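Assemble and predict.
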Amino acid sequence: MRFSARALLAAAVTAICAGAGAAQAQYSDGVIKIGVMNDQSGLYADLTGQGSVWAAKKAVEDFCKATKCHDKIEVVFADHQNKPDIGSNVVRQWYDVDKVDVVVDVPTSSVALAVNNITKEKNKVFLVSGAATSDLSGKACTPNTIHWTYDTWALANGTGNAIVKTGGNTWFFLTADYAFGHALERDTEAVVLKSGGKVLGKVRHPFPGQDFSSFLLQAQASKAKIIGLANAGGDTINSIKQAAEFGIVAGGQNLAGLLVFITDVHALGLKTAQGLIFTESWYWDTNDANRAFAKEFAAANKGNHPTMIQAGVYSAVTHYLKAVHELKSDADGAAVVAKMKATPTDDKLFGKGSIRPDGRKIHDMLLLEVKKPEESKAPWDYYKVRATIPAAEAFRPIDQGGCPLVKK
Amino acid sequence: MAGRMNRDMQAFVALMALGLVAPLMIYPVFLMKVLCFALFACAFNLLIGYVGLLSFGHAMFFGFAAYISGHTVKVLGWPTEFGILAGTAVAAGLGLVAGAIAIRRQGIYFAMVTLALAQMVFFFCLQAKFTGGEDGIQAIPRRPLFGVLGITNDFVFYYVVLAIFAIGFLIIYRTIHSPFGQVLKAIRENEARAISLGYAVDRFKLIAFVLSAALAGLAGATKAIVFQLASLTDVTWQMSGEVVLMTLVGGMGTVFGPIVGAAVIISMQNYLAGFGEWVLVIQGAIFVVTVLLFRRGIVGEILAFIGRARASSAAEQQEVVADRQVEAGG
């Protein structure tokens, strides 16, 4: 049973760059095996899912061309269904039985933290693109993990700081009443106050919430310029939809989302989502390389355009392959990560960047605003870039995360 | 009755023998997961199969015990075995409270009361500081068992989990086949008559409920150590639904049914993970087919088939004997 299922998986997704007569390097089992684990069927399937698998395979393909297909590389994938025990079971099996060398993506913080621990225990490599929790480069950091694309601190900071600077100086928070919501609210509030803004009030809604009307009316009555949505997923979608019904944005207030992706905007439609402000690390329509990538991505993924997470998977896999290729070995996970940290990053999507000792990948972040329907000229033409947050300011200062790897 | 018991014991020994060699062929962490869920389903089956109480909130015992064992082992630094016992004890206590409230009602109301209580526990776990919110309790250490047995090795730990499962299973088996278990079955068949015979029905139900909760807690506490994490997944109402599914698919009210059901459902979740959303569809389809065509579940149908075969062969023998008698007489 196990073998047939695995064979099926492998047959379905294997992307092999067969060595063209070149001598195989000393990779464990002669092959570099990349495992993409994410949500293939649930609420994060659109923003990670098969798109991330495609991005990983694309990175392998491009790397293969650049190195004349010297290395044998395989990509496998699995669905963790957003359950940490399923994710942890799959990853253990990948490391112990299937000889996977590196796990990529993994949205849902609880699953990512579980994978983080197992990866350290087995000395493999974990490249996080999907998960948000800034603990991965903070108190939960390990010598085997790199947090690539974004984190909660960067989103709260980018959105809070940049909005205040561009005139949104009075805030009202709509917060999901659980630890994640509280943390987002706390981080953003600190940034808003520090940049000279004011918080006029906040309200906590139950998690998960269905009816946001009374909370939105309070937010509307507060006359705050910005309503900060310290929630995620379905709660964010529902609160944006209901805010549109109340005419909040049309009335001159702006919504600031703290965890919003382009697929959410696509699902909401521009009419509902217009005016929403948030932070992402990558947008497909910013330069020619990104546009070319998005075009290929769309052709392979039913017309969908890549999210920052999927672009991050491409970028992370590219940098990983470079490091392994130079080391000529993938056996020692910590050594590979050390090599990745020592080498400046450079790829066609995220450009030049670097990785800090605490495992935080550093690059610019973008403050985005959703266009009005009449401003959008093409499908997926959704964002105006309001500001670019320079890499040096975009992420939590290294001494504030509490990562044990950082020498005081 | 004695024959039945012997057959069950033979089946149990065969199952244990299978359990002893299984990790040589199948990945031990996966097997440990199956065992934890099998014990969970067996504990649930004790209530629905033998007392006729459909609890729709068993995840509260399973998941909360996981948090307790995770917290005591990781934060308080307790030895593994005490952590698991603490989880079990707290689940039993929770079972006493939930049971005392819920057994006052029957049928759908009982199910709804348990569901409501489970949702309260879920909310508590979501809000409480020590559970770590949706991140859960991560990196629970696997300390040596009794200070000597190194359970960081999956193989070694597998046999420990197998032993825990065997103990839990034998407790349930003993309960079902005791005079106490007979009373439980009497309550299931006709509660009014059991009352008229002078049994304190509520007390029997409560004891069964607490026992079931404690064993569900034992399963959850063990699972937390196996995966080194305790998370919200284990206390959600979906988990309560999943254990109903396992028990129905395997065979409600049979001793081995829940084990088979747990193995089937967990295998599907694990090995069909590549099919993504189709896993849920397949699960749903299997559930519908089971309920429509095989109401006794997998093990129930097999037992019924054996029973029919026995009955018909016995009838044939009788016919042969009768024929001979006729011939001899003629």
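The radius of gyration of chain B is 22 Å.
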